[in-house]
Design goal:
The chain has about 140 residues and is mainly β. The protein contains 2 helices and 8 strands. The protein is globular.
Length: about 140
C-alpha cells in the first residue's frame, strides 16, 4: 500500500450537501455554491501527488481511501482507481460516486459523497482555523 498525507483548511461556507461528489481544493475561497467542497487551501493539487501514488491510482480497480481527520474525528471515503484517471488538475481533487473521470477526478465509485459525511464533522470543518489532515491510501 502507498500512503500520502497533506493538509487543507476548513471554511465557513462549507455545506457538504452534494449527493455524488466530494472535493478538496487548493483555492482559499469558497462560495456558498460549492456544496461538494470539504477542504480549502490544500497543500497540493491533484497533479502534484507523488508519481508512485499516481501510478497506483491508474491501475484498474485499485482500492483508494481518502481519510479526513480533524480533532479526534475521522471520515474515510473508499473508492476505486482507473486507467482513465489523468490526475492532471492544478487545484482540485474530486471523489465521485459515479464512473465519470476528468482531470479533477481522484477516485471513482466512491462509497461516500459530501452529503454522506457526519454532520458533527462538517460543523468542525466550517471553522477556518481548523486544519484538516488528508491522507490518500492506494492498494
Amino acid at each position: 500500500m502507498s500512503r500520502f498525507t497533506f493538509y487543507a483548511r476548513g471554511h465557513e461556507n462549507i455545506k457538504a450537501t452534494h449527493k455524488t461528489t466530494l472535493e478538496i481544493t487548493k483555492e482559499d475561497y469558497l462560495t456558498p455554491r460549492g456544496d461538494c467542497i470539504v477542504g480549502v487551501s490544500a497543500d497540493i493539487g491533484l497533479n502534484e501527488l507523488p508519481q508512485e501514488i499516481k501510478d497506483k491510482l491508474r491501475k484498474d480497480n485499485s482500492i483508494v481511501r481518502l481519510i479526513l481527520e480533524v480533532d479526534n474525528q475521522r471520515e474515510i471515503i473508499t473508492g476505486r482507481g482507473s486507467p482513465k484517471l489523468t490526475l492532471a488538475h492544478d487545484t482540485d481533487m474530486v471523489c465521485r460516486k459515479s464512473n465519470f473521470t476528468c482531470p479533477r477526478t481522484l477516485m471513482i465509485r466512491a462509497d461516500k459523497s459530501a452529503s454522506d459525511l457526519n454532520r458533527e464533522f462538517i460543523e468542525k470543518i466550517k471553522n477556518p482555523k481548523k486544519r484538516i489532515k488528508v491522507t490518500i491510501e492506494v492498494e
